[in-house]
Amino acid sequence: MNKNFLENINKFQEKHFAGNKTEFERLVAEGQFPKTLFIGCSDSRVIPELLTSSKPGDLFVVRNIGNIVPTYETGLGYHGVTAAIEYAVEILNVKDIIICGHSHCGAIRALYEPPEKTTSNISNWLNLAKEAKKILPENEIVDEPTLRETEQKSVLIQMERLAKFPTVREKLDKQELRILGWHYFIETGKVKMYNQATNQFE
Ligand SMILES: [Zn+2]
């Protein structure tokens, strides 16, 4: 990433915008009608549009540390992730919600090896994935296969939590909505998808 933001914006205008000007104008005139809500990790290596070959207007995106769905709460507070999910489901009427975990996720590793430097907000947020953590024998260091397994388990936990949102539950029952679990591998570019029939990511 070039630190010269102005130069990068110019590059975007020349390389991407100029050739697709009418498409961008159409998106403004017609508005956005994305059919998919993508919930992914904030990790800079996980780019939803890139890995799904999406164009502007295709994906409604929520990214946060660990691709987490918070517990449904209605109390006072600033529930940004919940609001975005409700907006996607109620207002945009998305048909699919993808929860996409990924390999080498720092949020999942932190469940086993809490970083020296953290904040109470970070630790509290990561608690929403801690059920995915495997109990290891004492003094055993977590290995890569266990991390991959935990990343997948966390996706399933987030899917379950999402299905408890009243607005989501209602549409699932009417079969107007699907929740999909994905596991993206940064090193191979492959995506494993959760198959409910086999209870595996394939
Ligand atoms: Zn991550």
CATH superfamily of the largest domain: Carbonic anhydrase
Number of domains: 2
CATH architecture of the largest domain: 3-Layer(aba) Sandwich
Low-confidence region ranges: none
Q: Report the biggest beta sheet as strand number plus sense, adding barrel if it closes.
A: 6 strands, mixed
CATH class of the largest domain: Alpha Beta
Structural class: alpha/beta
Listing every helix as H and every strand as E from the N terminus to the C terminus, the arrangement reads HHEHEHEHHHHEEE
CATH topology of the largest domain: Beta-carbonic Anhydrase, Chain A
Number of helices: 8
The overall strand count is: 6
The N- to C-terminal Cα distance equals: 33 Å
Write a structural description.
The chain is of the alpha/beta class and 202 residues long. It has 8 helices and 6 strands, in the order H-H-E-H-E-H-E-H-H-H-H-E-E-E. The protein has 2 domains: 1-31, no CATH class; 33-201, Beta-carbonic Anhydrase, Chain A, CATH 3.40.1050.10. The chain has a 6-stranded mixed beta sheet, with helices on one face. Helix 3 (48-51) links the parallel strand 1 (36-41) and strand 2 (59-64). It binds zinc ion. Zinc ion binds next to helix 5. The site of zinc ion has 7 residues, from helix 5.
